[in-house]
Amino acid sequence: MKVIGYLGSPRVSGKCSRLLKSALEGAESAGARTVKVDLIKCNIKYCMGCGNCFLKHPELSIGKCPLKDDMASLLEEYIQADGYIFATPVYDMFVTALMKTFLEREIALTYKEKKAVAKIPAARPGIESHFKKKASIIVTGNVTDEYSEVMADPCFEAFDGHFMIQQVDSVDRYYVGRMEDITEQAFSENLAEAHSLGARLVREIQKA
Question: Does residue 113 carry a pLDDT above 90?
Answer without folding.
Answer: no
